[in-house]
Each structure stands twice: as C-alpha cells, then as structure tokens.
C-alpha cells in the first residue's frame, strides 16, 4: 500500500514538473483543440444522406416552383391577367425568385445560431399556405401576395438552412450531394408545368394550383420529419453580415458574378413558353412543355459535371458553364424553327442546372469561407447579393421584349452580355481557389 501511494505521489510531481518545464510560448495540448470542430465532418452516413433527401424536397418546393413560372406566366398573360403587361406579370416570378435567395441573408446566420427547426417549419408552412392562397386569386395583387411574396419567403426560409445541413455533412462528396438534392428542382419543374397544363382545362385554375399545393405539403412533411429531429448546431456566428467577407476579393467577385448570372438566368426560363408560342408559332401545348424540357435537361447539369469532381475542380465547372451560357444566349437568336429550339432548350437546360448548384457547392471552399462556422452566413450573403439580379432581370427583359413586333433580340443580347460579364468576374475567384489547392 505504501509503494502504491508513493507511486501516485511521484506521478503527480512528475506531471507538475513537466508542466513547469514546458516553454511559456507552448500551448498545452488541450488548447490545440478547436471547440467549434470537435467532431470531423462525416462526409456521408445515414444522417447525412437523409439530409440530402430533405434537401431534395426543399428544392422541389423552392426552385422547382420558381422555374415552373414560365407556364404560369403564359396562362396569366393569355387568361387570368390579360389586362397586365408582360413586364408587370414578370414581377410575380421575379419577386418569388429574389426572395428565395435574398432571405438567405437572414436565415444563414440564424441557422448558424441553432434555429434550424424553426426555420424549416416556418418556411414549409409559408410555401403551402402561399400556393393555397394563389389558388383563390383572381386579381393581380392577390397573385402577387400569394405566389410572389408568400411562396418566395417560404422557399427562402427553407433553402439556405437545408443547404447548410448538406454542406456541413460532406467534404469531398459535397458537390455530388448538393447535385443529388438539387435534382428536386428538375423533378418539380418538370412535373408541375405538366400538371398545371393538363389539370387547368379540366378542373380549373383553382384546383390545378391546389393539386400542386398538396404535393408541396407532402414534400414539406418529409422535410420537417427529417430536419426538425435535429436541434441545430450553435456556432460563433451571430451577425447577419460577416464584414470580413467584404475584404476578400475572391468572395465578393464570385458574389457579384452571380448577380450578373441571375440577371440573365430567368429570362429564358420565364419567356421560353412565350417565345415558342409567339415567335415560332408553336401550339399552346408544345409551348407549355418547353418549360418541362428545359428543366428536365437541367437534371443532368445538376449531377453529371460533379461526378468528375475528383478530377476537375468544381469551380472550373462553374466558370465553364457560365461562359457556355453566354454562347447559349447569343445562339438563342438563331433558333428560328421548332427542331432547333428543342436542341437549344436541352443545351441551355443542362447549363442552367450547373449555374444553380455550382455556387452552393463552391462557397464552402476555404478561399470563400475561411471559417466553416460561418458557412450559413457566407452562403446567405452570396445568394443575398445575387438576389438583386433575380429581382431586376425579368422585368427589364419584359420591357425589352416587343411582343407586338415579335422581337426578343434586345432581351437575348442583354442576357448574353451579362453572362460574358459574369465569366470575366469569375476569373480571379477561380485563380484564387486553384492557388490555394496547389499550396495545400
């Protein structure tokens, strides 16, 4: 017993002496552990892939609805809101698209602060409520309140939190995970226009919209059942804006480039049905289906480029797609028959899928988000800055389109110039990311 007590005493004094002998500028081992990164990113697993399923449902209810607006716009222009100008009708989809990304400036910091359950629940409710209210609308302001503001707010509240959950659950598999989740946008934007086109003549506008709303309700229930089980991880981020981001040229140039992209992005999405109907003199059924063709092709753009992510840096994929989109806007001018327009629509649809998923998977790169605890804040800032492009793009295009003379050239050139500008702005962020990866 005496030997044991002596051994314990010796151990204590030896440990104390070791602490005293440690140089003053050397931190103790416990200080080397970052409390914000106690657990490594899992890069997969059941919970991570369930988050992808929830993200899929969020994409159906957010981007899937907004990219369906081309079908709604044609109906509003010809039936429900015939007295309104194309530019005024475009504001409905424009506000909806803007809110989906602009609200992220608020929801990003909130999800960083641990309010995941509240955000997902409120966002899911507003989407379903907005669609049900839209089904009752008969006037312009009613559609604006229901489809633009309510659905847009709901999508914005849900979108960034769901993307933060996915981004924080993967490392090397992040682009593929986000791409799989974003397929929900393609699924929704293919199904919803076809549903609307088939149901509206038989059961009327109110019940056609309600049927879409019931699908939104089912997606919302799946999302809440998965994401509302987790309390949300609290981190250091609390402010709506990370002011350090404004001192990082790579992040700011990427965000401004996305503003240019969003200015041009929704022009073909919203006007493709009108172009087919007015310019190409296609049937009404065909013009509605063009929206589904574009969105169906976008499913490949959301996944295929990122399957080669281990060999090609995702930011190379983004800048290449942006440059190719500039070509798409200008070649749109040359589509003068239905066959050529179908080919062009598939080409543009593929690129549009990359433009949506690329930035979300790239922003987690250390060049753009040095502190992963601020991922939600940076993602919200990036999309928030780009939201000004979503707001102004389609109304400007609506003013540039001359339906009386069947001329879309000014809007097409406008979109092409914006994509060229976005490509140039992405050069420096691409160089910065490549330099960082090589040094690392």
From TrEMBL:
Membrane topology: Multi-pass membrane protein
GO molecular function, one term: transmembrane transporter activity
Localisation: Membrane
Domain of life of the native organism: Eukaryota
Record bears the keyword Membrane: yes
Segments traversing the membrane: 48-69, 89-111, 118-138, 144-164, 176-195, 207-228, 249-274, 286-308, 315-335, 341-368, 380-401, 413-434
The entry's keywords: Membrane, Transmembrane, Transmembrane helix
CC terms in the record's Gene Ontology section: membrane
Biased composition (Basic and acidic residues): 1-24
Disordered: annotated segments: 1-37
Annotated family: Belongs to the major facilitator superfamily. Monocarboxylate porter (TC 2.A.1.13) family.
Protein name as it appears in the record: Major facilitator superfamily domain-containing protein
Provenance organism: Aspergillus avenaceus
